[in-house]
Amino acid sequence: MDSTHRRLLIVWHSRTGSARRMAEAARQGALDIARELGATDRFDARLSPAAQTGAGDLLESDGFVFCAPENLGSLSGEMKEFFDRCYYGALDQLNGRPYGLLVAAGSDGQGAVRQMEKICTGWRLEAVAPPRIVLTHAQTPEAIAAPKEIGAADQAHCHELGGTLAALLL
Questions:
Q1: Cβ(128)–Cβ(100) under 8 Å?
Q2: What are phi and psi of 54, to 5 degrees?
Q3: CA 157 to CA 144: how far, in whole Å?
């Protein structure tokens, strides 16, 4: 990749679909801004499942969206494993790059946000917006495990975060 090409990496994990839809909305927002700026030939917004993302993917990217569910008051295990696996391989090599956080949660989301913010602080990334938590209000075992959609307003916020990152990178 040459120095004029910019890449936004959107790392996500989802079991019920809400976090995946949030990540997709962020990607679409980034692509829409790249198109508006006439920069589609020098910009890439890549969706990357947490289990398939490595430190090399981070090092090759100029900005990030991290999108995951909160499970039992903490970051989902698969997303946490991504951070554990990649942390030291990217340490001191991502300084100053912009990022945003998206969390899908039943009723809170703050535990997952705190965990990701600590990791991003350690990597010395720069937040471009407050974390966005989308509440599904799922409280029963059946509702928690069921596939989920996210509303138009929440999709718009995710879209805006992706667009903000794209605009900063371009």
A1: yes
A2: -120, 175
A3: 23
Residue 23 forms beta bridges with which residues?
A: none
Residue matched to tokens 């962020």: 26
Give the Cβ contact number of residue 111 at 10 Å.
Answer: 16
CB atoms under 10 Å from CB of 167, counted, come to 16
State how far the Cα of 132 lies from the Cα of 65, in Å rounded to an integer.
Answer: 11
Helix (H) or strand (E) holding 73: none
What is the chain's pLDDT, residue by residue, as a tens digit (170 residues)? 456 899 999 999 999 999 999 999 999 999 999 999 999 999 999 999 999 999 999 999 999 999 999 999 999 999 999 999 999 999 999 999 999 999 999 999 999 999 999 999 999 999 999 999 999 999 899 988 999 999 999 999 999 999 999 999 99
Is this prediction's pTM over 0.85? yes
